Each structure stands twice: as C-alpha cells, then as structure tokens.
Amino acid sequence: MSVTPSRQHGSGAERNKSRLKPLTVRSLTFGGLALMASSINSLIFPILPLQLTSPDWLLSFISTLLACSPQLLMGTLVLLIARLLNSRDLKLAKRVNWIEKAARWWGLLLLLTIPLEIYAGITIIDQQEANQIKSIAQMRRIIEGFKTTNDESQMRIYVASLPDPPILPPRFDAEFPVIKDRVLSNLNAKLNLTLNERAQVTPRKWQSFIAEAIRNGIQAALLGIAFLSIAKYHDKAKSGSDSKTALNS
C-alpha cells in the first residue's frame, strides 16, 4: 500500500519543523546571552573605579545603568522565549531560573536610582552654590582690603598677601588715588557680573536638574517594574508547579 503525496508532504514538514525548532532555540539562547553580556560590559567598564561617595560618579553610574538596562531586558525576554520553546532543556532552564531571580535585584536597583539621583543632584548643586558663595565672599573681602589702603606701598603689600596675587608693574602710570579707583571699579564690576551670573544660572541649574530627574525617574520606574514583573511571574509559575507536583504525589 503506497503512501499518498499529502501524507509524505505532511511528514516532511513535521521533520523540518522538528529540526528547525532546536536551531531556533539555540539561536535565541545565544542571542539573549550575547545581549545580556554586552549590556553588562557596557555598564562595568565606564563605572570603574568605584567612587560610591562621589555625587558626580553616582550620576554617571545612573545614566549608564539606565542606558544599558533596555538591552538587558531584551536579552532576558529572548531567553524566556527560548525557554518557552524548549521546556525540556535543563541547562537552559537553570540559566533562566537564575536570570529570573537576578531580575528582582536589578529591578530594585533601578528603583533605588530614583532617590540616589535626587540626592546626588541636590548635593552637586549645593556644592556649586557653596563654592560660588565662598568666591563672592572672598571678592568682597578683597574689595574691603583695597579700600583700607592709603598709599602705593600699602597697596603693594596688600596685593602680595593675596592668594595667587597679580603681578603689578614696577611703577604705576597714574597717581595712587586714580589707581585705587580703577582697581575698585574693576573689582566691583567683576563682583556684580558674578552676582548677575549666579542669579541667572542657579534657576537654570535647578530647572535642568528637575527635568532630568523626572525623565530618568520615569525610565527607572518603568524598567524596574518590568524586571520585577519577570521575577513576580517566575515566583507564581514556580509556586504553581510546586503545588501541582505536591498534588500528583
């Protein structure tokens, strides 16, 4: 009794499908692991050496973490698809099981970046403000010091006592009162310029920081919830599997 062409075609398609499935799973596994390894590599080297107490380092770390997390999430999802297509591969199952557990910690780390960025950003702005205030106070002290000088010799002594003193010419091209007025005029102009720049730049710093913190906070929350959801569904699936095993036994 001969086999009909339709049956031969059906059996051939099934064989091709059975051959293609393992190749697809291996490709997905390799691709998922490659994506994850590339993501981790993109994170590790830019943050070395570790400077956990530096606000600038924290902001750089958060930026790098947020940049590489979407690729890591994609690699994780690719591995989950490979695991779904081949549930009998114990080696792949162990890898996915470990990755799903690690997803919880990665998600928590992403959520932790939200308060960390707020702390680091505020600390940096406060440090910059403190430096500006210190510089302005120093300029005012210098101005008051010049006001107390009464002749050229006192001025030269006072200038020599300043940190990083300017080089004065051996002889001035005008009388001392004229030189004193020029110096005070220049110092007051510089002080006013610094005060005006501070008044304009400080609000822009806060606006830029708030906008960046909101954008990064939303991104961190979305990615963190995605990773935590993977861990959550893994726990549900595991508990359901354990319950089924207990019932069967």
Explain how this protein is built:
There is one protein chain. The two termini are 47 Å apart. The chain contains 5 helices and no strands. The radius of gyration is 34 Å and the shape is rod-shaped. It has helices at residues 5-44, 55-85, 90-147, 152-161, 176-248. The chain has one domain (5-237). It is mainly alpha-helical and 249 residues long. The longest helix is centred in the last third of the chain and has 73 residues, at 176-248. Helix 1 (5-44) packs antiparallel against helix 2 (55-85), helix 2 (55-85) runs antiparallel to helix 3 and helix 2 runs parallel beside helix 5 (176-248).
Tally of strands: 0
Class by SSE composition: mainly alpha
**How many domains?**
1
Which regions have little confidence, pLDDT < 50, spanning 5+ residues? 240-247
Biggest beta sheet summary: none
The proportion of residues forming helix, as a percent range, comes to: over 70%
- In DSSP terms (H or I, runs of 4 or more residues), the helix count works out at 5
Q: Could you report the average pLDDT, rounded to the nearest whole number?
A: 84
